[in-house]
TrEMBL record:
Pfam families: HMG_CoA_synt_C (PF08540), HMG_CoA_synt_N (PF01154). Coiled coil: none annotated. Residues 263-350 form the Hydroxymethylglutaryl-coenzyme A synthase C-terminal domain. The lineage of its organism: Bacteria, Bacillati, Bacillota, Bacilli, Lactobacillales. It comes from Fructilactobacillus lindneri. Keywords: Transferase. This is Hydroxymethylglutaryl-CoA synthase.
Length: 389
């Protein structure tokens, strides 16, 4: 039986900052950000959005009543969760009017959470083919103003339904995993900004990619040439390019050119949004599906997931009949186009307004947020979510 991604939806809030403006403000050559890092714009997350609202807004793109009757597993992959106890998936269940006869929980392992959810959902649907799972990767990526990681911030969510006989992509039965106790990126429980050893995280990412892709190919008797494209976890798009360059020397010139062309398609959206942490890999997959010009049904796509700390996983997907969807593409393009550009001081002002962990009760003005689901503050230590239609 084929099990995999049946629908995919994306959300990012309605503000961004241009990387040329940010480079100038930080006295850097704009080409360092545009080419060296590989980003053109970065999503700026207002206080009225968080990992729950963004997940709900992404899922609302894809959930209909048929899904509501079949979804019995709801998984939120996030490393910017809003509560140390209650999972964001329970809020999601309510905001999306999902079935109450469901398992709902949150998974954390840095940027790997959504992949852990997808693999778990795949096994679940294999056992219960008449049921479906909703898996969402949603995060706010914050390193801090004037830090080396600032150029790799961003935020947003990717929601996927996992089902039997999927319309978009079936997921391979096997995958190759590798994990180790590594301090390359972490966020202590009392902090809203991540701590990172950026160059070290780069080295570990490349190492885990090399180990998992080669192990996967060997164990599944495949060649690199069997992969039409490879999508990567893209905290910034140059990182995936570095990964791809690790394996290019093993290929003919023609195949190298093909994979590089697919890679460009796979980073169109990520360049404009920046880092989504758990959702980044799946935004890149969406970008490939929407922007590649020569993909065909049954093409095999390599998928590399990485979460600092660190966990790597490589698996493959096989494209199914409805992997292209013009309406979905138009929606993403208009979401990105209608965003408001902020100058650097406006971005800094919004960044600093992010609620402190010990802020207590407060009310947020949601009138400038055009998303369907917004966060309107904290009352009696309880988070307040609103649906505006
Ligand atoms: N024109 C073109 N390229 C230029 C340039 C110019 N004028 N100036 C510099 N560059 C290039 C450099 O050559 C370099 O390229 P390579 O990486 O290919 O060598 C690139 O721009 C970046 O330059 P630096 O290495 O000098 O930049 P930096 O020291 O400021 O650090 C960074 C860059 C390490 C990515 C930093 O931004 C950072 O720490 N980011 C956060 C870390 C991160 O995102 N890690 C990802 C894995 S962790 C993760 O994904 C999180 C998770 O699991 C939750």
């Amino acid at each position: 039986m084929n099990v995999g991604i049946d629908k995919i939806g994306f959300f990012t809030p309605n503000y961004y900052v241009d990387m040329v403006d940010l480079a100038r403000a930080r006295n850097e050559d704009p080409n360092k950000y545009l080419i060296g890092i590989g980003q053109t714009n970065q999503a700026v997350i207002p206080p009225t959005q968080d990992s729950v609202t963004m997940a709900a807004n992404a899922a609302l793109q894809i959930i209909d009543d048929d899904n509501r009757s079949k979804i019995s597993l709801i998984i939120l992959g996030t490393e910017s969760g809003v509560d140390n106890s209650k999972s964001g998936a329970i809020y999601l269940q309510n905001l999306l009017s999902l079935n109450k006869q469901a398992r709902a929980f949150e998974i954390k392992q840095a940027c790997y959470g959504a992949t852990a959810g997808i693999q778990m959902a795949k096994d679940f649907v294999n056992l219960h083919p008449d049921q479906q799972a909703l898996v969402v990767g949603s995060d706010v990526a914050r390193y801090g103003i004037n830090t080396p990681g600032e150029v790799t911030q961003g935020g947003g969510a990717v929601a996927m339904t996992i089902a039997a006989d999927p319309q978009i992509m079936s997921i391979s039965k096997n995958s190759s995993v590798y994990s180790d106790d590594i301090m390359d990126f972490w966020r202590p429980i009392n902090q809203t900004n991540a701590l990172v050893d950026g160059h070290y995280s780069n080295d570990i990412y490349q190492k885990f990619f090399n180990i998992t892709i080669h192990d996967y190919l060997k164990e599944n008797k495949l060649q690199l040439d069997d992969l039409k494209a490879i999508v990567f976890h893209l905290p910034y798009t140059k990182m995936g390019l570095k990964g791809l360059r690790e394996i290019l020397p093993e290929l003919s010139d023609a195949k190298q050119a093909d994979l590089l062309q697919e890679f460009e398609a796979s980073r169109v959206y990520n360049k404009q949004v920046g880092n989504l942490y758990t959702g980044s890999l799946y935004l890149s997959l969406l970008s490939l599906l929407d922007n590649a010009i020569d993909l065909k049904v049954n093409d095999k796509v390599g998928i590399f997931s990485y979460g600092s700390g660190a966990q790597g996983e490589f698996y493959t997907g096989t494209l199914k009949s409805d992997f292209k969807n013009n309406l979905r593409k138009q929606h993403v393009e208009s979401l990105l186009k209608q965003r408001k550009q902020l100058n650097v001081s406006q971005y800094e002002e919004l960044f600093l307004r992010w609620p402190k962990i010990d802020a207590g009760d407060f009310v947020l003005d949601v009138t400038n947020d055009n998303a369907e689901v917004v966060f309107s503050g904290v009352s009696g230590s309880k988070r307040q979510y609103k649906i505006q239609r």
